[in-house]
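Now for one specimen:
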Amino acid sequence: MKILVIEDEESLMQSIVSYLKGEGNICEMVNSYWNALEKINLYSYDCILLDLTLPGGDGLKILSELKKMNKQEGVLIISARHSLDDKLNGLEMGADDYLVKPFHLSELKARITAIVRRKSFSGSNVMSFNEISVNLLAMDVKVNDKSIILTKKEYDLLIYFISNQGKVITKNAIAEHLWGDEIDMSDDFDFIYTHIKNLRKKLIEAGAKDYIKSMYGVGYKLGNI
């Protein structure tokens, strides 16, 4: 998953990012209202962790901007504000969940996973495309009910393709989704080609049809033949 952490408490932000990266997620972080606005305008995420008290503005305004832009990110408010009114206000404005500080990082992870599962996969732990199925909790990929072994990037690519099946995904979008702002966005996407080539090879060798098609000069698409 690709996650944006909007939090001005440095130690907490670093703890959250370190934990979530250790779980295999892509994480970006900002510590102010204006930097958060810039991020949500430039990029898309699977989930946004949103503190309400930020230098430069109220986190609820960030939530309002996301809705105005028709962004589909899941939003989990993380805040020291624990009154019922604060919780109801955040949820009524469109947040998917509200977690009061302090919290256990394991609970944070569970809340994030639940949000993404509800929004992207209709609440199911299993997503599929024809003979290919993925158990999201076990991170187990099967072709015709036989498990195959993928690298972390290959697994993330497959999830991204199935989530966007039938859509043309640009090389820029793939790079930005899987590597976040840590990557130098150049015109050389050979590394993406290599990951996709290896993923296609493993799926085909396991008995799947070749569903991942290159769209010349644009990107790739997962679709029925």
